[in-house]
Design a protein that fits this description.
With 182 residues, the protein is mainly α. It is built from 7 helices and no strands.
């Protein structure tokens, strides 16, 4: 009577002669390092890790896997959100990567100013329309922009333009072609 084998046993038996090429091993190593670094950056961003603890973890990853600063920069830059609070990530760029975050900060601030300007214009237009159409005005009139297609479309357009500016800045930082992960 034959032996019953698990799926894992069968797979191992069929693939025992296969090996990874150098390029595949390097890609796999970079992917593992990237996942580790992403985990560290996300935990730092969420407030779970302090800057000091993150630095210790990075040293550990560098000694065990040979992580590069370029991969860390990429993971930090991937976490930057145009609409979010990026102060922690910018301090990481400054303290850990020894990179001046002011150009990125300037782009983020310009984006926020642009969105506020667009919002102010849309709110003003809607208030005027409401006043003309229904004769209602005053501080109690607060137009809801979120459901308006023209507002959403213009915000997306502004966001795309600033995302492109960030990509160009990130390419300067990392020294290679960059694309957002998300």
């Amino acid at each position: 009577m034959g032996e019953i084998k698990s799926t894992m046993d069968i797979v191992m038996e069929k693939t025992r002669h296969l090996t990874l090429s150098r390029e595949e091993k390097e890609a796999q190593r970079k992917e593992e390092i990237g996942k580790s670094l992403k985990g560290l950056v996300v935990r730092f961003k969420d407030g779970i890790l302090t800057m000091e603890r993150l630095a210790e973890e990075l040293k550990s990853i560098e000694t065990s896997h040979g992580a590069s600063e370029g991969l860390l920069k990429k993971e930090i830059l991937d976490q930057i959100d145009l609409n979010g609070d990026n102060s922690g990530l910018l301090s990481l760029l400054k303290e850990i990567c020894r990179f001046d975050p002011h150009p990125v900060e300037a782009i983020l601030n310009a984006y926020r100013e642009s969105i506020l300007s667009v919002k102010g214009r849309h709110v003003s237009e809607l208030k005027d329309r409401i006043c003309r159409q229904w004769g209602v005005s005053g501080s109690a009139v607060v137009p809801d922009l979120e459901g308006r297609a023209d507002w959403v479309e213009e915000c997306q357009s502004v966001k795309d333009a600033y995302r492109q500016r960030l990509v160009k800045e990130f390419e300067k930082i990392s020294g290679c072609e960059y694309a957002f992960s998300a």
